[in-house]
Every structure is written in structure tokens, then in C-alpha cells.
Design goal:
- By secondary structure, the chain is of the alpha+beta class.
- Helix content is 17%, strand content 40%.
- The strands form three sheets. Strands 1, 2, 3, 4, 5, 6, 8, 9, 13 and 16 form a ten-stranded antiparallel β-sheet that branches. The protein has a four-stranded antiparallel β-sheet with strand order 7-14-11-12, with no helix packed on it.
Length: 177
């Protein structure tokens, strides 16, 4: 079975409550609001790359994800995909799959990490193929294979902030897709 098919069939959505503390979430939002937002390539949400300490984030993540999957070993966070997202009232994002990043044939992203930085009304992340919906909850992390179809429901009021990153794995030896 091919790697991405294996991930889609063998893994579930991982939810981690209190992955970030309330204090860290507030600090992330403060950092984000001091930066320069750009509009997403699709929809109206805003995005910016963060300069958070990836080593710290990678260490937190290491406690919760598989260290090895079919010869692929956890490598860390792809720096360009470690981003803050800001959704305003009525923002949505349609069904999609996250495009994997291939740094090289031996290093590529397999999972997406989403950390909700605040509570909000609406803005749930839906996984239609899994018949699952997750409400944004301050500090909650969600980790899932990148080929899981997902979306963001309309934000009812206020703002929704998330940190999103792609999780890299490295393959030693022969590479088979």
C-alpha cells in the first residue's frame, strides 16, 4: 500500500487538549497582531509566517506523533508552513486537502498540525469523510494526515486564530511512493 493511502486508511484525527497553555496562546496572538498579514490565496482569511521557536514546538509535537511510519522518521516542522491564520466574522474555508511539501524525495510533509489560539463562535473544522467536526477550543491541537478532506465553517462572531504547520518526515534507504 502506498504511503499516503496507508495514512488515510490507518490514522485518525488526533486531538490534544491544552497542547498550548492560555498564556502561550495569548502570546501567539500578540505576536501575530504585531506582524504583517496577507490575504489567503483562497477565501478572505489572513496569513503570516511566524518566527516562533520551532525547536520548542517540535519538542511538544514529538510527544504526540508517530516517530516512524513505514520507514519514514519524524524530522520536524517545515519552517515556511509554520503560520498564523486569522479568520474574521463570516470567514469560511471550503473543503480541501493540504498539499504536501516535498523538500526532497527523502524529506516530505505527512501531517498537518493546527493549534487553536482562542475560543470563538462558529469556525469549526469539519472532516466530512470522517463525519467529524471540531470546535475551536483555546490551546487544543489537531493533527491529521494531509490527505484528509477538511474545511472551516463560518465564524459566527469575533475572530478565530490558529497556528498551522506541516510536519516533516525523513526516509532513509530506498524511497517508495
Amino acid at each position: 500500500m502506498r504511503l499516503r493511502e496507508y495514512l488515510k486508511e490507518s490514522f485518525e484525527i488526533l486531538e490534544i487538549e491544552n497542547f498550548f497553555s492560555e498564556t502561550i496562546c495569548r502570546e501567539c496572538i500578540d505576536i501575530a497582531e504585531q506582524g504583517d498579514w496577507r490575504t489567503s490565496n483562497l477565501g478572505t482569511r489572513k496569513i503570516q509566517t511566524t518566527q516562533l521557536d520551532r525547536g520548542w514546538l517540535e519538542g511538544l509535537l514529538r510527544e504526540h506523533i508517530p516517530h516512524e511510519i513505514q520507514g519514514w522518521h519524524y524530522e520536524g516542522i517545515h519552517p515556511a508552513t509554520c503560520q498564523f491564520f486569522k479568520y474574521t466574522e463570516n470567514d469560511t474555508f471550503p473543503n480541501h486537502q493540504d498539499a504536501p511539501i516535498e523538500v526532497s524525495p527523502r524529506v516530505q510533509s505527512l501531517f498537518t498540525l493546527v493549534v487553536y489560539l482562542n475560543d470563538c463562535h462558529g469556525g469549526e473544522t469539519g472532516f466530512p469523510e470522517k463525519n467529524k467536526t471540531l470546535a475551536p477550543r483555546l490551546g487544543r491541537a489537531v493533527i491529521f494526515p494531509q490527505n484528509f478532506l477538511h474545511n472551516s465553517a463560518r465564524v459566527g462572531s469575533g475572530l478565530k486564530y490558529i497556528l498551522r504547520a506541516q510536519v516533516l518526515y525523513r526516509r532513509e534507504g530506498e524511497v517508495a511512493y
